[in-house]
Hsp20/alpha crystallin family protein
Amino acid sequence: MLMRTDPFRDLDRLAQQFFGASGTVTRPAVMPMDAYRSGDDYVVEFDLPGVAADSIELDVERNVLTVKAERHPSYDDDAEVQVSERPRGMFSRQLFLGETLDTEHIEAHYDAGVLSLRIPIAEQAKPRKIAITGGSEAKQINA
């Protein structure tokens, strides 16, 4: 079994208790992702377990994609919390998209705690054939 330790977890817990942060994370929460190319699309998947779909915001401005989400505690304010290790609060991540991607046609889908984005490759960036003329016949080559 592999265990990953977080040396700052106890400091966060102490800071929350001392300063009364009531369940908010004192440092940015992690939003793990995978990104890969599939055919004519780039696919980006973010892990957002426990996040309601209506709390997710997606914005694109000048080829910068911003994902924001918020996770609230599942218990009431008057609950006596024994252990609180799951990050809560606002999550945010930015991706810088290349000029070859079509940011006007991004598709987003959220299911089972995974936000999936499909970003198509722009038509002008796709490989195309160029006709060559000259001599007695025309040829086509891949560009």
Q: What stands out?
A: Strands lie at 33-38, 41-47, 57-61, 64-71, 89-96, 107-111, 114-120, 129-132, 139-142.
